[in-house]
Amino acid sequence: MFESxxxxxxxxxxxxxxxxxxxxxxxxxxxxxxxxxxxxxxxEVVRRKQWLTRDEFLDLLGATNLMPGPNSTEMAIHIGHxxxxxxxxxxxxxxxxxxxxxxxxxxxxxxxxxGSTAEARSLAYGIKPxxxxxxxxxxxxxxxxxxxxxxxxxxxxxSFALNCVGVSxxxxxxxxxxxxxxxxxxxxxxxxxxxxxxxxxxxxxxxWAQSAxxxxxxxxxxxxxxxGALFLAFAKIGAVLFGSGYVLIxxxxxxxxxxxxxLTESQLxxxxxxxxxxxxxxxxxxxxxxxxxxxxxxAFIATVGIFLPAFLFVAASVIILPKLRKSSRVxxxxxxxxxxxxxxxxxxxxxxxxxxxxxxxxxxxxxxSAFLLIRxxxxxxxxxxxxxxxxxxxxxxx
Length: 398
Known about the structure:
By secondary structure, the chain is mainly α. Helix content is 82%, strand content 0%. It has one domain.
């Protein structure tokens, strides 16, 4: 009996080490965004290591699509739990996030130390219009999946208009989701099914997030910066962000640029650029911003804040999501959230366009990059590098 327990403990320890080594490697080499990250995970855990069947992997992928937060990170956390229980859940997620966090922190250090030089300004001059093109390409690609009906197109258009006139991003998101839920429920004979827990949770989450937003607004631009406020700002974003990781830009701009004035639009674009040329989750953009605001402590606090909700959501989903995934009403609610997320992303892209595209050269760079991305699906990392070189050369010889 004791030998059996010892053998089981040893096997579990080996599973944990396997998870740590796999996700450290993926976190160091996974470029290309969440879709590419998930494809790499599928290749490793289904085809190569055979830890999961294809159906099990798809089940986990479906679960991540029902939760806010960074999908590829949540997928790593799910795989960790499936392979090695609760300890695996924590270690797989941390291992996937850690390499990108360290790389982005190093980039932020270099940015703070050398970012004011003429050479650095020339690099940023060429990178920023490329980032606009990358976001536009993501917007185009995601819209083909998210805008599935005329109803969703109308809801997305209304979301765009409401955000343009200053309605809170969170209000727009949840109003869109609830609108789709009501429209779907009206066509069904039964009003409630497995969706009710999600709806209740979403309403409570919206109430909490709106309360936090109102508190921040009441403080206004004079609200002082603190590590606690930084943690809460990114924890809120991590807890309510549905859709692509690029929607992160909309929330950061709304909170840290417009409401709190902790960040400039130029710094936000620089942070997004670093997120594009480094591996791992796009949400480590928060790491870069945290470092700009408060050094190493800020980088750590911002990273914990934005990723902590993902761990909590996955832990909860192990119990409740298998039932919720079968609900058509949950699907309708999420369809509304996703199309509203794209609308917010479109509004922010137009706003940032004014900062990035400032002359004919940057306009040509943005249009060329968008064409290469959409027509030839060129890797965004190479485009960002190309933009940096172009900006450096143009700034150096003009």
